[in-house]
């Protein structure tokens, strides 16, 4: 009842993306494609991005904690934890997932219906 979940990306997603990029780049090198990225360039870009992102995150943490000072809340904050209310039925993951897929599908289907009917001059074709 009092548990909280942490948001964020899973490390597996990052591993999958990196391995997919490496596989595609290996295939591109095997076929001698001009679209392949040299390994040294990939390492240099990774090192630069890691140092830039790490240093900016560290700098932002230090500046954010020291600049703001003590918290100045507009009202008193109780330290007693309150129970988190149960989710409504329409906020459950299954309903949200269905709506997240159904609404875009319906929109795209409606648009494609009008596009194809304009191509076919409102004639219906049966297979």
UniProtKB/TrEMBL annotation:
The keyword Secreted does not apply. The chain crosses the membrane at residues 39-63, 102-122. It is found in: Endosome membrane; Golgi apparatus membrane. One of its GO terms (cellular component) is endosome membrane. Keywords: Endosome, Golgi apparatus, Membrane, Signal, Transmembrane, Transmembrane helix. GO terms for biological process: protein localization to membrane. It is a multi-pass membrane protein. It holds the Pfam family EMP70. Belongs to the nonaspanin (TM9SF) (TC 9.A.2) family. This is Transmembrane 9 superfamily member. It comes from Fraxinus pennsylvanica.
């Amino acid at each position: 009842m009092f548990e909280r979940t942490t948001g964020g990306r899973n490390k597996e997603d990052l591993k999958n993306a990196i391995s997919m990029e490496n596989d595609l780049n290996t295939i591109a090198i095997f076929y001698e494609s001009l679209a392949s990225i040299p390994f040294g360039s990939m390492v240099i870009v990774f090192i630069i991005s890691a140092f830039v992102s790490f240093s900016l995150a560290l700098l932002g943490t230090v500046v954010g904690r020291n600049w703001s000072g003590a918290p100045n809340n507009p009202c008193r904050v109780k330290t007693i934890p309150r129970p988190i209310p149960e989710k409504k039925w329409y906020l459950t993951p299954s309903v949200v997932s269905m709506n997240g897929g159904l609404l875009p599908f319906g929109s795209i289907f409606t648009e494609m219906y009008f596009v194809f009917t304009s191509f076919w001059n409102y004639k219906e074709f049966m297979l």
